[in-house]
Specification:
Structural class: mainly alpha
Distance between the termini: 34 Å
Radius of gyration: 17 Å
Largest sheet: none
CATH class: Mainly Alpha
Number of domains: 1
CATH topology: Ferritin
Helix content: over 70%
Number of helices: 7
Length: 213
């Protein structure tokens, strides 16, 4: 609820509710699934397994984004920054729900390590937010640019016939670019080295593990 003042207890309860909804898979999208009008073609076993692995990685990415933005919003000093983070988090909820839908269609499941991914990302979000809103927004820009890049890789790596996964990822990619642009326009500060490199290394580890587990 952007713009409303909440007590610390209110915020802790809302963050706990968000965590449970994200980890337990009860997220609901506000926007229609971009794949709704794409035919669900039959993939062979290897293609289905590979597509599921990629979509599990993207689902984990949305779990992390949820936690990151909620953690950042919890300590944001400026109300407009907090509202922007929460608005972005809502769009990430759409992505989360769409990826979960596609995993079910592929007869697969989310990562078993989602509680760990969420907890770690929430802690990072809080730490980033405590540095101040300029650094907070800078973290958003760097995160979204890296997500854009890995979605581009996945769009190339998906089985050619998997139009449903491709439609979801294309919409997600456009949303991530917009989030980065909005954060940049709000006064994001460029993150100093080696922070971007450390973020990329952590992302690579997450993608490698989440593809399988």
């Amino acid at each position: 609820m952007p713009g409303r003042d909440f007590t610390l207890v209110d915020r802790l309860l809302m963050d706990a509710q968000n965590a449970l909804g994200t980890i337990l898979g009860s997220a609901r999208a506000e926007r229609a699934n971009p794949a709704v009008d794409r035919p669900d073609v039959v993939l062979d076993a290897d293609e289905r397994r590979h597509a599921a692995g990629l979509m599990r990685v993207n689902h984990v990415g949305e779990v992390c984004a949820q936690a990151l933005y909620v953690g950042q919003a919890a300590v944001a000093r400026d109300v407009r920054t907090r509202d922007q983070l929460l608005a972005a988090a809502q769009e990430e909820t759409d992505h989360l729900a769409w990826c979960a839908d596609r995993l079910r269609e592929l007869d697969s499941r989310p990562s078993l390590l989602n509680p760990l991914w969420y907890a770690g990302s929430y802690a990072i979000g809080v730490l980033a937010g405590l540095r101040g809103d300029g650094w907070n927004l800078g973290f958003v820009v760097e995160t979204e640019r890296q997500v854009e890049a890995h979605i581009a890789e996945h769009l190339q790596a998906l089985p050619e016939a998997d139009g449903r996964s491709r439609a979801i990822l294309a919409t997600m990619q456009a949303d991530e670019a917009r989030h980065a642009d909005q954060a940049q326009a709000r006064g994001a500060r460029a993150l100093p080295p080696p922070v971007p490199s450390l973020m990329a290394a952590a992302s690579k580890l997450m993608k490698t593990v989440a593809y399988r587990i």
